[in-house]
Amino acid sequence: MMFYDKLRKLRKQQGFTIREVADRSGVSPSYISQLENGQRGIPSPEVLHKLSAGLNTSYAVLMQEAGYLQPLTDMEPPPQVPINLRRFIRENELEYDGLHLTAEDKEWIDRVLTALFWKVKKEQKPTNQP
């Protein structure tokens, strides 16, 4: 399968129109259309980085699909170590759907998650019955 087929398939799997990917990535809709129709060659890594944001997909995946990176099929994946989500949110620059999250935004996210998980923990707590 050619890159342009893979790009179109990925966009459709994500449920995005070309216009939505363009708006989310900053890449022109005509260029994306030309890529998907095979009228353009493999885009540069910089364009792939923008498209990864627009497609809500891993940059590494697009780099592999474009042939810049070889798949890491022979390597064993690293062990998964839990990440403290509260610390991650507080200590990192974040964006959501292209919007930069301010300290106040991150505080609200923390509050919502705290409320959500407090409710779940409370519901899971066994009740003491005599």
- How many strands appear in the DSSP assignment? 2
Task: Describe the largest sheet.
Answer: 2 strands, antiparallel
Number of domains: 2
Radius of gyration: 20 Å
CATH architecture of the largest domain: Orthogonal Bundle
- Head-to-tail CA distance between termini: 66 Å
Q: What's the pLDDT, averaged over the residues?
A: 88
- Give the helix level as a range of percent: 55-70%
Q: How many helical stretches?
A: 7
CATH fold node name of the largest domain: 434 Repressor (Amino-terminal Domain)
CATH class of the largest domain: Mainly Alpha
In one word, what is the shape? elongated
Instruction: Detail the poorly predicted runs.
Output: none
**Order of adjacent strands in the largest pleated sheet:** 1-2
**Which strand-content bin applies to the residues?**
under 5%
- CATH homology superfamily name of the largest domain: lambda repressor-like DNA-binding domains
Give, in order, the helices and strands.
Answer: HHHHHHEEH
Which structural class do you get from the secondary structure elements?
Answer: mainly alpha
